[in-house]
Amino acid sequence: MADGVVLNFWKKNLGSVPESVWEQTAVGTLILADNGLREVSELLGRMKHLRTLDLGHNQLAGLPEGLGELTELSDFLYLHDNRLTELPGSLRKLQKLRYLNISENAFSIFPEVVCRLASLTELRATDNAFSQLPESIARLSRLRELHLRNNRLTSLPGAIGKLAELRQLDLRGNPLESLPACITSLPRLEKLDLRWVDSLPRYEWFDALEARGCVVYR
């Protein structure tokens, strides 16, 4: 079965992906992390059985539209530690994807296409440079973990209160000036991390969160 076929090229100093890789269309897991890659071929879209794709720790400034053809991609998509400033619109086709990591890139605007990924349960978008989240974040109704450490957020949209499955919200190291009280309406929130945030007042509703068992780190 494709799920069990793994191609692991982690830290092989490839520089570029051999054409022969794109011919192995039965692969379920493809690891190309830490190879100094500057681009990925549109032929990636041939690998329609992929469930996990790791492109982390490279030098990618863009991604092929063919990424959206990987409609079976469900387990993990690692794009962290690259030079990305935007994501291809075709990403919206990845309706089975549960985990996405876009940390340590160069996003100055949060890539709204991420909000189309209806099955996401964990989103890691730390160490970028965006200053706000779109209201469409509310579409991520299955999200359990949202990691936003070390960005430039000064506030959050009220739509954050619609993430009813959210367990962890990591806002460390952001220059937050305010937070919406609707955070208290998140029924499953277990951890609100506000460490390294010096610009935020202490809200009375922090106490209400802690009283019901949510840990608030400050």
Walkthrough of the structure:
This protein starts with 5 loop residues before the first strand and ends with a strand. Strands 1-2-3-4-5-6-7-8-9-10 form a ten-stranded parallel beta sheet. The protein is elongated, with a radius of gyration of 18 Å. The chain has a single domain, classed as Ribonuclease Inhibitor (Leucine-rich repeat, LRR (right-handed beta-alpha superhelix)). The mean pLDDT is 97. 31% of the residues are buried. The protein contains one helix and ten strands. It is mainly β and 218 residues long.
Content-based structural category: mainly beta
CATH architecture: Alpha-Beta Horseshoe
Distance between the first and last residues' Cα: 47 Å
Strand order of the largest sheet: 1-2-3-4-5-6-7-8-9-10
Low-confidence blocks of residues: none
What is the helical fraction, as a range of percent? under 10%
Number of domains: 1
The rough form would be described as: elongated
Task: Provide mean pLDDT, rounded.
Answer: 97
Major sheet details: 10 strands, parallel
- The count of helical stretches stands at 1
Global Rg: 18 Å
Element-level helix/strand string: EEEEEEEEEHE
Tell me the layout of helices and strands.
Blueprint: E1 6-8, E2 29-31, E3 52-54, E4 76-78, E5 99-101, E6 122-124, E7 145-147, E8 168-170, E9 191-193, H1 205-211, E10 215-217
Parallel strand pairs: 1-2, 2-3, 3-4, 4-5, 5-6, 6-7, 7-8, 8-9, 9-10
